[in-house]
Amino acid sequence: MKVCFMGLGYIGLPTAIIAAKHGIQVIGVDINPKVVEMTNQGKLHIVEPGMQELLQEVVSSGQLKASTTPEISDAYFMVVPTPFKGNHEPDISYVEAATRAIIPLLKEGDLYVIESTSPVGTTDKMAKLIFDLRPELTDKIYIAYCPERVLPGNVIYELVCNDRVIGGINEVSTDKAIAFYSQFVQGTLHRTNCKTAEMCKLTENSSRDVQIAFANELSLICDKAGINVWELIELANKHPRVNILQPGCGVGGHCIAVDPYFITSDFPMESKIIATAREMNNYKAFWCAEKVQNTMLKFELEHHRKPTIAMMGLAFKPDIDDLREAPAKYITTKVMQSCNNADILVVEPNVQEHNVFKLTDYKEAYIKADIVVFLVAHSVFKSLPYDDKKIILDFCGIYKK
Ligand SMILES: NC(=O)c1ccc[n+]([C@@H]2O[C@H](COP(=O)([O-])OP(=O)(O)OC[C@H]3O[C@@H](n4cnc5c(N)ncnc54)[C@H](O)[C@@H]3O)[C@@H](O)[C@H]2O)c1
Prior knowledge:
Layout: E1 2-6, H1 12-21, E2 25-29, H2 33-40, H3 51-60, E3 64-67, E4 75-78, H4 93-102, E5 111-114, H5 122-133, E6 142-145, H6 155-161, E7 164-168, H7 171-181, E8 189-193, H8 194-225, H9 229-236, H10 260-264, H11 272-303, E9 308-312, H12 327-337, E10 343-347, H13 362-368, E11 371-374, E12 391-394
Parallel strand pairs: 1-2, 1-4, 2-3, 4-5, 5-6, 7-8, 9-10, 9-11, 11-12
Antiparallel strand pairs: 6-7
Helix pairs in contact: 1-3, 8-11, 11-12
């Protein structure tokens, strides 16, 4: 069987590699020639533990080949970006472009699968596009949606072991897609229809967003009431049926901070909680920035000089180097814009250098700072001794007690 992966990014490339490792002949397509060149040289262009060795193996054995143009195959997988536009509306133009590129190659009996996180109805839309342009293939090819739920950093394990949800435009398409994935997925393959599968992915990430919003809302209430939110949540979670997540300085990344908008933009009247959760998590970052700015002003009034401030962390979650949609980055930018010449030390121990922020070593910044703002709970920050002579704004629970 020969298959074609459209998009060789964080998800498409590892999936193509794992499929190739399981004996499937894979052609990996990307519009970025650099990605194609590196892949063909066996050089991984993303960061993922253990993946480099696997890539070299499947490239040198000839199981995986990369190209900027698709080739005739038996199955096609769309793993391209699905960002949102300025008004928070989903942008499925990449899925459509990748689909248009393979339409001339389709033949009877082929399988077409969308893996990209997509708004409800995308698979039906792409099926219509395919059959409008190739009406002779109606009911003769198989079309399905199969979202990805791997955690970057643990992709080799999760690609194989996670359960997956697979929904075809009809039963026989679901069967075909399940038959494909069962070649390398050991987790259970749960069958449904394509709309439910699309909504399932959006639901998973919206559910996380809503739960984090609840914790963030509690953190605002506790700040006003003079209650330690970390202790409160720990105590509430002693209830056998309560499981509150931890608050932070907002929600970031390219999934949880993005996917709920795919629901709110299509179902604005119905998605009240999902929309409010998004607002709450965005507001939390704004609130943190205001808190830092007010603390700076207070310091200046009391000490008759500008403070030195350490902004600890830029990533969207602990112990990673990914800054996409990161609230810590937003807060740091906002504080710097209003800093009035205060000395701001920006810290991100997982990044070597940044084109906007001049980075400072975390220990040095902590020692120099009058105000220390913990934005991300990176493990290394937890080893810093608590210094009660400093003003500490702990938005992520470094010193929970
Ligand atoms: N990264 C994750 O953790 C994750 C997890 C689950 C789901 N997803 C979803 O998977 C999809 C892909 O995400 P990603 O993180 O791999 O994105 P990515 O940006 O890392 O990679 C996408 C790749 O597609 C390429 N591309 C764009 N248009 C193309 C086209 N027409 N033909 C061929 N290649 C094209 C880009 O050059 C890029 O290399 C998105 O919908 C995302 O929401 C991502």
